[in-house]
Amino acid sequence: MAYPATRADAVVDTLHGQQVADPYRWLENEKSPEVQAWMKAQDALARDAIDKMPGRDALAKRFKDLFYVDSVSAPARRGQRYFFMRTHKDKEKAIVYWRDGESGPEKVLLDPNGWSKDGTVSLGTWAPSWDGKRVVFAQKPNAADEAVLHVMDVASGEWSKVDVIEGAKYAQPSWTPDGKGFYYEWLPTAPSIPVDARPGYTTLKFHVLGQDPKNDVVVHERTGDPTTFLQGELSRDGKYLFVSILRGWSENDVYWKHPGDKDWRLLVKGKGAKYNVFSWKDRFYVVTDEGAPRQRVFGVDPKKPERANWKELVPEDPKASLGGVSLVGGHLALEYLKDATTELRITTLEGRPVRTVQLPGVGAASNLAGLEDQDDAYFAFSSFTTPRQVYKTSVASGKVDLWAKVEVPMDPDAYAVEQVFYPSKDGTRVPMFLVYKKGLKKDGTAPTLLYGYGGFFVSMQPTFRASILPWLDAGGIYAVANLRGGGEYGTAWHDAGKGANKQNVFDDFTGAAEFLAKQKYTQPKKLAIYGGSNGGLLVGAAMTQRPELFGAVVCGVPLLDMVRYHLFGSGRTWVPEYGSAEDAAQFKTLYAYSPYHHVRQDVRYPALLMMASDHDDRVDPMHARKFVAAVQNAKGNQAATLLRIEANAGHGGADQVAKAIESSADMYAFLFQALGVARPEGEVAAEGR
């Protein structure tokens, strides 16, 4: 292809005695007119090429039918009011509604569809007060992480002109019981603070409604450490205020005090362990992996909070990994994973088993959502072949009823789901889900899309994904590998895929590819891989380490320059997960797998579609730009390398359905073309748009 011209500079750093070439460093400066012109040319090339691909319009039409659907979330009760979200077949963004009572008439609360003419202003976090009279919510320009908090009166729908708070990138507001104020995490927006240092400036503040936010009291000072997160939460009864200082996704310290007290009290210092703490009726509940890689639950008397006085309520289950815990209807609701599928259990507050919640099948469910002193609770369920359903349950009786479901134009009985286990390079047994149309012949010819993530304790569960249906209908297989680095099997599984062990994740992924070929599901030229964010790093590493295993790669909003990642976006907060090139030993690990630094001139790489967002303030798009430049200019590479840039979009992309349709149609048109898949059914003869 005739790519836009990309100059290579003779930039070489010497780090810990190692010479590190960085010929495309100039592409880090997004504000440069030269870089802007390069981005515009790359995006135009990608979109023009994809527009001409056969089947692209048929895919867009199918995605329109699949994505524009009516749905409703589980409700949250506050006072006598119920709050929930709906999507509509004729709306681009979800709308927040409220009711007086569970069966009262629906009233619109927050409708982001009208917040901007071009749809670029999005709804972020939102939290009704405990009495249901007000809601605090975040507006996010370009669906980015940066946000502004607002307060609305629920009954009148009026927005406060005073309660407007900038610097809400990390804010998760926590209301006082009387609804007169809330605690929130605040991050200064001063341009003088370097981007990579900003997380260390996060403070916990308290806002009194009707007062100028500039006068909000700082309740907990900043840590000054950009590798940490600071999070605060007030108990529902307002008696206890907690602050957690997180160092990555593996350990944290917890402090607490009574609001109004001057000094914080240390509850626990996390040394290689993490603690999630909440309270009810003068008791702390602590969910932790301390001494229990699959987690357990303790009860703590705040009058005797010393570690020696903690009482174990729910011991570790050696066969299931405990995730979320909530207190609903006077019971503990516990969400477990068994081989990456959900199991919900109910116990008494002392940890005595009561029942396992009846789920409609094998799949992924959210934990019970409800109030500590109310019997009604709700949970969502889906599987690869079951669109999301919301169920209502009685904590006391165990009765489960369908409350709402999503209607999607599909036949769930047409597809099969299989869970397989395969050996990684070091012999570790790794699970993988496979989804395909019934009647699949294992002759090695099925086009296969392999997805993975492998990091930050994130578990890949068998949830419904409407976007894969056209792929399945064309005879394709969708595979999801549960790689190390995730949380599927608890802390040990995560630790085995982070820091110095990161290569295990890539070995698990390439092991999945080898298994799929060996078992005659597919073959390398029919196998594509896809991942985003940390999963973008995954596919970038797999592509540069084992290019012969794949026919195509889709890489979204990725990290790819692991030598300099910590200098951009939220990079320093990920140092506990990856390590930093500023440390000699960690640099050696990072440089050994950094995809950008391992693009070779003499290799033919798989076809690559890079999908970036222009307002990604979490993972800087410089990663995507530099990697694409390197691959396009590798002399031995002949396959297409395209850079598609989503405008007015953040790390999670744009939050408009029309944008999701365009993005998915482009991605799958690329995959159909790259793997030689037959055109989707119903495609019109005309190509392009």
UniProtKB/TrEMBL annotation:
<dbReference type="InterPro" id="IPR001375">
    <property type="entry name" value="Peptidase_S9_cat"/>
</dbReference>
<dbReference type="Pfam" id="PF00326">
    <property type="entry name" value="Peptidase_S9"/>
</dbReference>
<comment type="similarity">
    <text>Belongs to the peptidase S9A family.</text>
</comment>
<dbReference type="GO" id="GO:0006508">
    <property type="term" value="P:proteolysis"/>
</dbReference>
<dbReference type="GO" id="GO:0070012">
    <property type="term" value="F:oligopeptidase activity"/>
</dbReference>
<dbReference type="InterPro" id="IPR023302">
    <property type="entry name" value="Pept_S9A_N"/>
</dbReference>
<keyword id="KW-0645">Protease</keyword>
<dbReference type="GO" id="GO:0005829">
    <property type="term" value="C:cytosol"/>
</dbReference>
<feature type="domain" description="Peptidase S9A N-terminal">
    <location>
        <begin position="4"/>
        <end position="405"/>
    </location>
</feature>
<protein>
    <recommendedName>
        <fullName>prolyl oligopeptidase</fullName>
        <ecNumber>3.4.21.26</ecNumber>
    </recommendedName>
</protein>
<dbReference type="InterPro" id="IPR002471">
    <property type="entry name" value="Pept_S9_AS"/>
</dbReference>
<feature type="domain" description="Peptidase S9 prolyl oligopeptidase catalytic">
    <location>
        <begin position="463"/>
        <end position="676"/>
    </location>
</feature>
<dbReference type="Pfam" id="PF02897">
    <property type="entry name" value="Peptidase_S9_N"/>
</dbReference>
<dbReference type="GO" id="GO:0004252">
    <property type="term" value="F:serine-type endopeptidase activity"/>
</dbReference>
<keyword id="KW-0720">Serine protease</keyword>
<dbReference type="InterPro" id="IPR051167">
    <property type="entry name" value="Prolyl_oligopep/macrocyclase"/>
</dbReference>
<dbReference type="InterPro" id="IPR029058">
    <property type="entry name" value="AB_hydrolase_fold"/>
</dbReference>
<dbReference type="InterPro" id="IPR002470">
    <property type="entry name" value="Peptidase_S9A"/>
</dbReference>
<keyword id="KW-0378">Hydrolase</keyword>
